[in-house]
Amino acid sequence: MRYMKPLNLFQGLLKIPAVERGRLLGLDVGDKYVGLAVSDFNNKVASPLSVLVRKKSNIDLMALDFQHLINELSLSGFIVGYPYDRRKNSPNATQVKVFVDDLTKTGKLDGVPYTFWEECFSTKNVEVLLKPFNFHPVETKTISDKFAAVGILQGYLDVVNRHTVTEQSQ
């Protein structure tokens, strides 16, 4: 995996012809699950995809899952939710870094570009919205992880698309 600054990742995509461009995958990394969301082919709208179980012992299997998704969904990069805390390094931020480092060490995702994107409160926001529905706790967790990934990816897409439109109009 190869880190890129958020705007550079998107600008790199725009240099590829539209028919070959590919989509983006949003990741909400938690201690037990990784919520996934995928963009449309125009990289404008995020949709929920699935949830992967996260264990230290299954990182190779997760890397294989990501390889499969890259091929199946024509993915061009990952947008990884990152809980920025300006005052200190949070445990959640550390676990996201460890997850990305572990995926990178497998060697199965060499060259796949990724970037980090602000994700503070993404899961909490979804949980508040789901509370009135009284879903089973397990169902609430999987739904909230997927939709937190949607929030992360959609936030990224909104900003980079707005920046691109502004840049082109100047």
Automatic annotation (TrEMBL):
Family matches, as Pfam families: RuvX
InterPro entries xref list: RNaseH-like_sf, YqgF, YqgF/RNaseH-like_dom, YqgF/RNaseH-like_dom_sf
A GO MF label: hydrolase activity
An individual GO BP term: rRNA 5'-end processing
Taxonomic superkingdom: Eukaryota
Keywords assigned: Cytoplasm, Hydrolase, Nuclease, Ribosome biogenesis
Domain YqgF/RNase H-like, chain residue ranges per copy: 22-126
Protein name according to UniProt: YqgF/RNase H-like domain-containing protein
